[in-house]
Design goal:
The longest helix is centred in the last third of the chain and has 21 residues. The protein contains seven helices and five strands; from the N terminus they run E-H-E-H-H-E-H-H-E-H-E-H. Helix 4 runs antiparallel to helix 5 and helix 4 crosses helix 6. A five-stranded parallel sheet has the order 2-3-1-4-5, with helices on both faces.
Length: 184
């Protein structure tokens, strides 16, 4: 993006700590955190989306991030989760990879892409969670996209692992490697 706003995109399978990391980084960086539109869809509709709704949710996520970029006082926007996750879920649930290309194009707009490892315990939290086996499948899909599609597009991804403090520290190091202002 050329709007002068710094953007961080979070990716990772279900229950991999994306929302917690987004909130922690939001506090440290005084950033605007854009919540996951997929979760909002599930909460509002009372169900998981069908295949034909995936693209709209992905674009809604990007639109919410763009709106936050216009009003965020710090000029730092964190996407919890990046639109790429909708593409991952489309592959995992519908065997549909048609959103990967558009999601990779959207990923070019991030200054930093953080991939949450699946080394945290899986915790059920409603109708949007399917289990550790699904999380492992999503992790594998992300690994393939990172190795192939994102690498081919020149998009760097930092894997964050460990417990909560370790993840925030790793994310902070990645942020500093980009030459961005030091977290306070």
């Amino acid at each position: 993006m050329t709007d002068g706003v710094r953007r961080i995109g979070l990716i990772g399978g279900e229950c991999s700590g994306k929302s917690t990391l987004a909130q922690d980084l939001g506090r440290v960086l005084d950033a605007c955190v854009v919540p996951e539109r997929l979760r909002a869809f599930v909460d509002e509709a009372g169900r998981n989306p069908v295949e034909s709704e995936q693209r709209g949710i992905m674009l809604d996520q990007q639109a919410a991030e763009d709106a936050a970029a216009l009003t965020c006082p710090s000029g730092i926007v964190i996407a919890d989760s990046a639109p790429l996750m909708i593409a991952v879920y489309s592959v995992a649930y519908f065997d549909d990879d048609s959103l990967i290309g558009p999601a990779v194009e959207l990923a070019r707009g991030y200054d930093l892409m953080l991939w949450c490892d699946i080394d945290l315990p899986w915790v059920a939290d409603g109708i949007q969670r399917d289990g550790p086996e699904v999380r492992e499948r999503e992790h594998g899909i992300i690994a393939s996209i990172v190795r192939h599609d994102l690498a081919d597009a020149g998009i760097a991804v930092e894997l964050v692992s460990g417990q909560r403090p370790d993840r925030a520290e790793a994310a902070g190091r990645a942020w500093q490697l980009l030459g961005l202002r030091e977290p306070t």
